[in-house]
Specification:
This protein is of the alpha/beta class and about 270 residues long. The N and C termini lie far apart (about 55 Å).
Length: about 270
């Protein structure tokens, strides 16, 4: 079993390390602050992480140790010479199903040392039949100590694993992907950006789409006129009250037009 290590720095007392079965080439020497929010991802393709999460502000925060990512390669736990991780469906049918004994060993490792309380450490299976992922889920996950994600493949995961580990099933949309890796990165991006210090400006998350169940108002910047299109005069007026009123009205109109389901929800909550 490999061990993640960190290079000594002046802040070495704040750094931590953890064991992992990641292939050696996936190990890094990036620091991790003690208590940093951590994502453990069980996947057949650990090399696809961090993917887009390694770019921009989430990537900088990962490099700086504000959050940590531990891809756990499922194939490591596979059976036999070929590291088998799947088998034919009980009762017949097309495709293959991820084996409970293999996934169970991977999840035992992923769950080791993590809180049993799902509010402190959610355990999520990315599944097309899951609850639709939304901003409230991202906020809930960001408030936890970290989370474990299971990336599905083939025809899915043996139901006994889902039941035994009380996995929360989450979907990112009404369509089918070849696997859960992209869905896991979407979920993590939405979550990690809410961790204090990641974006650098806490106010930037307060006026975004889906806050208060409204889509975000249109945004503009210089130049004041571009190819015959001008910035709405109210935004250049200096009247903060008028600007706030315009933005609210725009958000409401866009929500009514594009997401009537969200608009109905706001009216019900009112």
């Amino acid at each position: 079993m490999g061990t993640m290590t960190t290079r000594p720095t002046k802040s070495h007392g704040r750094l931590s390390q953890s064991a992992s079965l990641q292939p050696r080439e996936l190990m890094t020497d990036r620091p991790r602050l003690k208590g940093a929010w951590t994502a453990k991802v069980v996947t057949l393709f650990p090399e696809t992480f961090p993917g887009v999460l390694g770019a921009s502000l989430t990537g900088k925060a990962l490099k700086d140790g504000l959050w940590a990512l531990e891809p756990i390669g499922l194939r490591t736990f596979g059976l036999g010479k070929h590291r088998q991780v799947d088998d034919t469906p009980a009762g017949g049918g097309a495709g293959l199903v991820m084996k409970p004994d293999v996934m169970g060993r991977a999840l035992d490792m992923a769950c080791s040392g993590t809180p049993a309380d799902p509010t402190k450490w959610p355990r999520v299976y990315l599944s097309p039949r899951g609850k639709p992922f939304d901003q409230r889920d991202a906020e809930r996950f960001a408030k936890a100590d970290g989370m474990t994600l299971v990336c599905g493949r083939f025809e899915g995961l043996d139901q006994r694993v889902i039941d035994h580990y009380a996995l929360e099933e989450i979907s990112i949309g009404d369509y089918v992907l070849t696997g859960g890796e992209l869905a896991a990165q979407v979920l993590l991006d939405a979550t990690v950006r809410l961790i204090p210090g990641v974006l650098g400006n806490a106010e930037s998350t307060q006026e975004e789409s889906f806050q208060n169940d409204l889509l975000e108002h249109p945004q503009y910047t210089k130049p004041a006129e571009w190819r015959g299109h001008a910035i709405p005069p109210v935004l250049l007026s200096g009247d903060h009250g008028a600007v706030a009123k315009w933005r609210r009205e725009q958000a409401e109109e866009l929500t009514k037009l594009r997401r009537p389901d969200l608009w109905t929800k706001t009216q019900t909550e009112d």
